[in-house]
Design brief:
Strand content: 15-25%
Number of strands: 9
Order of helices and strands: EHEHEEHHEEEHEHEH
Mean pLDDT: 95
Number of helices: 7
Bound molecules: 6-phosphogluconic acid
Low-confidence stretches: none
Radius of gyration: 17 Å
Shape: globular
Strand order of the largest sheet: 1-9-8-5-2-3
Helix content: 25-40%
Structural class: alpha/beta
Length: 249
């Protein structure tokens, strides 16, 4: 009998409402981690969807989050300098980091200005140093985006990065638009306490339906994100969830 996975799917009227919910989840997770352990670690995604999230975090949580106890990492980065228009770091810096009181030592940037192999090794050293682990880091919270082809972070279908079981971060080549990147690996992502997907826009409706309604999971990297014992939550706006409705979700 086919097992139908139940996903934790939350649908919002529009991208702004989605960003508000994501920011609220970030703030609540940070508060809980800081109370329990005095520190909070989060990995930020790339792409354009997080832009609104950063704006809400900066405007609504600038004072209420204890940013001096928050450590920010990235799920992936393009092999470009930090001031490059394609830099995931630049998006977060301009939208959030430059506007909040977060110590520079709490920003764990992937150094895209290096070649991807060197940047991945350096990032892995930083991860091991921060998490004080010889095994697997455990992020309190990881935000992920969803590509129309089912990629997430910079884990692409058929890439060697998908089969990495030992390393924490590896180089990854994106065929479209044809650039090198650095990405966290599946073992790290699946060791997170919580993974939150941010999915916005009609262009993601098809892939979201395949993964969430039809449970076509292991064909796509995003479908391979199954943290255990952590949780995965899918935040979609109405446009991105459109096909879910039609498939009886
Ligand atoms: C990247 C991202 C990537 C992104 C998705 C969704 O560096 O491009 O990490 O995985 O999250 O492609 O991108 P959008 O938010 O732009 O749709």
């Amino acid at each position: 009998m086919e097992t139908t996975l139940k996903h934790d799917i939350r649908v919002f009227p529009d991208p702004y409402a989605l960003a508000i919910a994501a920011a609220s989840f970030f703030a609540a997770s940070a508060s809980g981690a800081i109370v329990n352990r005095g520190i909070f670690s989060a990995a930020l995604p790339g792409g354009s969807t997080p832009r609104l999230l950063f704006r809400i975090l900066e405007s609504a949580y600038r004072e209420s989050v204890e940013w001096n106890r928050v450590h920010l990492f990235w799920t992936d980065e393009r092999a470009v300098p930090p001031d490059h228009e394609q830099s995931n770091y630049r998006l977060a810096y301009e939208g959030l980091i430059s506007k909040i009181a977060i110590p520079s030592g709490n920003i764990h940037r992937i150094r895209g200005e290096l070649n991807a192999a060197e940047a991945a090794l350096e990032y892995e050293r930083d991860l091991r140093r921060f998490f004080k682990t010889a095994v697997l880091p455990r992020f309190d919270l990881v935000f992920l985006g969803l590509g129309q082809d089912g990629h997430t972070a910079s884990l692409f279908q058929g890439s060697e990065a998908l089969s990495e079981t030992m390393r924490l971060a590896v180089p990854s080549f994106s065929k479209s638009p044809g650039n090198w990147r650095v990405t966290l690996t599946l073992p790290v992502l699946n060791n997170s306490s919580a993974v939150v997907f941010l999915v916005s826009g009609r262009s993601k409706a098809g892939i979201a339906s395949e993964i969430l309604a039809q449970n076509i999971l292991n064909r796509y990297p995003a479908g391979m994100i199954k943290p255990s014992p952590g949780k995965v939550i899918w935040l979609l706006d109405r446009e991105a969830a459109n096909s879910l409705k039609n498939s009886g979700k």
